[in-house]
Amino acid sequence: MAEPDYDVLDSEQSCRAFTRETLAELKEVGADMDEPHLIEHHLFGVDFDKLEKAVVELAKKGFEVEDADEVEMEDGSTGYCCDVMTESVLQQDEINQQTDLIFSLVVKFDLEYDGWGTYLPELDGDEYEDDDEPVMH
């Protein structure tokens, strides 16, 4: 899959453009767009407390939250990344609702939103397993 033209999703419009592009590519590779899929949204922040506050709000909204991972940045500083997940059909309106909520928290807590990805078990003929790799940008 092609890489998007942007690295960080820094506006609601860029989130929607990312979703349009991702959904078009998923449809092109044969994803079942009407079947619920596990959607992983990727968050990043340099302040662990702010990231934690955002994911607590998302957990209250029904998202499943993975533990945050500490990452070393190119400049030697530390940051934290975390995935939040939900099941959803692969439809623009459904994903927009998720990204709108997530982006509002990104702005509120001074985080970065790195987009979303999903697993396509229907292309492998297998059910989702924890060690499957998601299709992501």
Automatic annotation (TrEMBL):
InterPro entries: RraB-like_sf (IPR036701), RraB_dom (IPR009671). Gene3D superfamilies: RraB-like. Residues 18-118 form the Regulator of ribonuclease activity B domain. It comes from the Bacteria. This is Ribonuclease E inhibitor RraB. It comes from Aliidiomarina soli.
